[in-house]
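Page 42, continued from yesterday. The earlier attempt failed because a stray header line got pasted into the input along with the sequence. Redoing it now with the clean sequence only.
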Amino acid sequence: MKRLVVSSILVALAAGCVAAADPAPKPAAPSAGATAADPKTEEEKTFYALGLFLAQRGQLSSFGCKPGELAMVQAGLADGALGNTPKVDIQTYLPKLQSMAQDRFSANKSATAAVEKKKSKDFLDKIAAKEGVKKVGSGLFLETITEGKGTGPVSGDNVKVNYKGTTIDGKEFDSSEKHGGPSTMRLDPSNLIKCWCEALEYMKPGGKAKLYCPSDLAYGDDGHGPDIPPGAALVFELELIEIVK
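This time it went through. Structure tokens are written below.
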């Protein structure tokens, strides 16, 4: 609820700052690759951040706009904020906008997934040749760092773990440390990605391992949030602290 209120306020601010501007001739649309001048003052940087916010929260990047298309988006924003007479009927074009969003999002996601899968295959091929790495389960590459002891977990057990997840280029997207320490979770395919489920059944309490997960054992062609693109392979450092009874 609070997030929606904040978004509405910021959109209103954006409209207000455009409406308050002195009328001036409209500049020509920027050429391909051209951008506005870099923000210099704190006020300019704040307004620039507002533009980024509106683009990100509006998921504008999912449209993959070309420079000419983006110029039309800017024209529509300006007319709406200034109260100019609309050049199209928004109710007529909303369904078309929704259809375009779905089509372009699907196309962009598929294209991204294809690129990521190629990068991931090259990465995993190198990992497969690494000493100490073995292929287990349905395609997981597992590198044991520390052997555990005792009996390992089975599906349905609650496990206490430390973990860190990165993309194949080393960018960290999550860790137990970010959440205040070890996490307890149920070893269940409906609760965890396949990569973890398969790895944990090869581990014992006190054990540590490095997991190299193909995309189909992680988040697949959908990706996950802004940090895990569609088709991405992932790397996890995983420590099984204990099986929680």
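Notes: Helices lie at 2-19, 42-57, 67-82, 90-128, 194-200.
Reminder to self: strip header lines before submitting.
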